[in-house]
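In line with agreed milestones, work has continued on tokenised descriptions of protein folds. One protein thus recorded appears below exactly as we store it:

>
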Amino acid sequence: EKNKDKINIALKYEDIIHNKNKGKISALLTIEEGGVAKGSLSHLRNYYRLGVRMLTLTWNHENEIAYPSTSRKEAEKRQRYHRGLKEFGIKFIEEMEDLGMIIDVSHLSDQGVEDVLKYTRKPFVASHSNAREVCNHVRNLKDDLIKEMANRGCVIGINLYPPFLKEEVDGRIEKGNIESIIHHIKHIILVGGTECIGLGSDFDGISGHQEIKDASYMPKLAQRLEDAGISYNVIEKIFYKNFLNLYKEVL
């Protein structure tokens, strides 16, 4: 309300286009942690009525919906490595699809992502996840999941958190460089094509990235992508068109 001359809420795809034509930023209200629904579809519907249009099924902890991504060692200790969506979780994602709310599988276990693919029809997102083949971190996606998601029309938003971009070397993690971001982008394009990749910085959830410190540095990433041989058309897809197409189909 304070900045309504610059930004406006978006409840559907048409709102985004309307706001753009008015020169305004669109705000899409999202929730990161399905546990806020407390195992109730009624709560989910109320969040939708309040304007929520995307929800991340889990954060770092088990909830009523599903099991989160976790290390093999930790998973085996808790006997949940191959656990994904719970019975209520299946009902939950079906309700999300019926409402027109975007399902977000970042933080979800590998089996959980498989389950979402199995029990849904529409595209969904991994709003802030990278490629595990490039950086072997449990929060990143395996190639087979990237391919399956790409075939569905899903979009994966690149996370700028340095430990998710590059593996530790001698126990040290770099503070973040653009080359690592480009490495993940190129790999995901190689596996899933140019339609499944976007940006999912996680600026509000990470300690920082050395070269891309906030959204004002994104033109620097665009230039480096172009220098790396990525075409302007593909850069546009990465920066906004892929997610915008998904919004058009799902919201």
